[in-house]
């Protein structure tokens, strides 16, 4: 039977890994990573264009002074980006997926370590600290 100290240490590490997994899932699902409002003013009319970029999809809306609103247009972010922007988007997605897998593996290891015999821990405390550091 594992000691209370070992169980509490690995249980807290499990909570940290599971919470990082949830945060990464939320980051992947967030529809608005970047938002911007562009305002144009001319004599007699004001136009506001609202852009919102997510990881995969973006929206564009146009508002005019008189209360006229153009319908919201959605577009694929990868198609709208060019050159370095596209590679940055791919890199962000790849790193988030890698962090997601790392958090999942870390939470599995810490759960195994918290419930197993203290002499047969999987990677021990160094493994827990290593995986949590990698997740962070």
UniProtKB/TrEMBL annotation:
Keywords, sorted A to Z: Membrane, Transmembrane, Transmembrane helix
Family the entry assigns: Belongs to the clarin family.
GO CC annotation terms, alphabetical: membrane
Membrane spanning stretches: 90-109
Database matches in InterPro entries: Clarin
One Pfam family matching this protein: Clarin-2
A GO biological-process term: sensory perception of sound
Protein name: CLRN3 protein
Membrane topology term: Multi-pass membrane protein
Keyword Transmembrane helix appears in the UniProt entry: yes
Subcellular location: Membrane
Upper taxonomic lineage: Eukaryota, Metazoa, Chordata, Craniata, Vertebrata
């Amino acid at each position: 039977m594992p000691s209370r100290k070992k169980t509490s240490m690995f249980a807290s590490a499990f909570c940290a890994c599971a919470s990082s997994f949830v945060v990464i899932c939320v980051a992947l699902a967030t529809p608005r990573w970047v938002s911007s409002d562009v305002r144009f003013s001319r004599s007699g009319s004001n136009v506001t264009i609202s852009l919102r970029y997510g990881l995969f999809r973006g929206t564009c809306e146009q508002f005019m002074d008189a209360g006229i609103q153009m319908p919201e247009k959605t577009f694929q972010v990868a198609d709208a980006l060019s050159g370095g922007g596209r590679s940055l988007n791919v890199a962000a997605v790849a790193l988030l997926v890698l962090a997601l897998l790392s958090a999942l593996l870390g939470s599995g290891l810490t759960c195994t370590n918290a419930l197993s015999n203290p002499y047969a821990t999987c990677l021990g405390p160094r493994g827990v600290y290593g995986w949590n550091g990698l997740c962070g």
